[in-house]
Amino acid sequence: MTKDYSASQELCLNPDGGLPRLLEIMARLRDPENGCPWDIEQTYDTIAPYTIEEAYEVADAIQQGDMDDLEGELGDLLLQVVYFTQMGAEDGHFDFASVTKSIADKMIHRHPHVFGDESRDKSAAQQTADWEKIKAAERAAKGDAPARTLDGVAINLPALTRATKLQKRAARVGFDWPSTTEVLDKITEEAGELVEAVQSLPHDKQVEEFGDLMFVMANLARHLKIDPEEALRSANAKFTRRFEGVEDKLAALGKTPDQSYLEEMDAMWDAVKAGERNG
């Protein structure tokens, strides 16, 4: 028997349909009889990379200060949640309503100083410590094994972000250098070991020593209250801006980078840098 899509179509085409409209659009896209072939064949695994990409695009819009773009990127990110919940509903695991109820219940339970009778008169650090205690109590209530210090730090996070999170977890239990002085000393030590590895050790050891140096650099960023991912994104943007400035100077001479040479481009790079400082 042919399905009657009239009510669904009316909702999908209603510009004021809000969240129910979006949920219905996704259900229609995944409809096994009349949906979109591409959407129908997607799985949790195939959609996950898009979710990560959309989260980065949200962060990029924020960094650029582009609120119009941010509005669109937030919609793209919300679509990822809707996609997963539609698949979860099809498989009988969860749906959008159960997911929203779960996170709302969690926020209420983990903020007794806002929604309960606990005092709000405590520092952000104390609230973070209380949050961890509440999480531990939740795990105990479910009969889970006692959490290890580094449990729950997602493996698929960007490596610098994960390094920082691992170090923050360890610092909570006192495993941390007391000041940046010790971290800087460790950076000097690790840099020396990397130089030695490059000069005399096989490639796998060079990779290991490079990783050690990067890990300590992430630790320094944490001590300086710097987000290493944000700092590196800023450095990437600066390099892109300056190299494009070099390209512009070469273009004014009727040349491209592959028609130039290092000394010429290096001089132009210095000129671009000077222009930024004087501008």
TrEMBL record:
<dbReference type="InterPro" id="IPR048011">
    <property type="entry name" value="NTP-PPase_MazG-like_C"/>
</dbReference>
<dbReference type="GO" id="GO:0006950">
    <property type="term" value="P:response to stress"/>
</dbReference>
<keyword id="KW-0378">Hydrolase</keyword>
<dbReference type="GO" id="GO:0046061">
    <property type="term" value="P:dATP catabolic process"/>
</dbReference>
<dbReference type="InterPro" id="IPR004518">
    <property type="entry name" value="MazG-like_dom"/>
</dbReference>
<comment type="similarity">
    <text>Belongs to the nucleoside triphosphate pyrophosphohydrolase family.</text>
</comment>
<dbReference type="InterPro" id="IPR011551">
    <property type="entry name" value="NTP_PyrPHydrolase_MazG"/>
</dbReference>
<dbReference type="GO" id="GO:0006203">
    <property type="term" value="P:dGTP catabolic process"/>
</dbReference>
<dbReference type="GO" id="GO:0047693">
    <property type="term" value="F:ATP diphosphatase activity"/>
</dbReference>
<feature type="domain" description="NTP pyrophosphohydrolase MazG-like">
    <location>
        <begin position="182"/>
        <end position="243"/>
    </location>
</feature>
<dbReference type="Pfam" id="PF03819">
    <property type="entry name" value="MazG"/>
</dbReference>
<dbReference type="GO" id="GO:0046052">
    <property type="term" value="P:UTP catabolic process"/>
</dbReference>
<protein>
    <recommendedName>
        <fullName>Nucleoside triphosphate pyrophosphohydrolase</fullName>
        <ecNumber>3.6.1.8</ecNumber>
    </recommendedName>
</protein>
<dbReference type="GO" id="GO:0046081">
    <property type="term" value="P:dUTP catabolic process"/>
</dbReference>
<feature type="domain" description="NTP pyrophosphohydrolase MazG-like">
    <location>
        <begin position="42"/>
        <end position="115"/>
    </location>
</feature>
<dbReference type="GO" id="GO:0046047">
    <property type="term" value="P:TTP catabolic process"/>
</dbReference>
<dbReference type="InterPro" id="IPR048015">
    <property type="entry name" value="NTP-PPase_MazG-like_N"/>
</dbReference>
<dbReference type="GO" id="GO:0046076">
    <property type="term" value="P:dTTP catabolic process"/>
</dbReference>
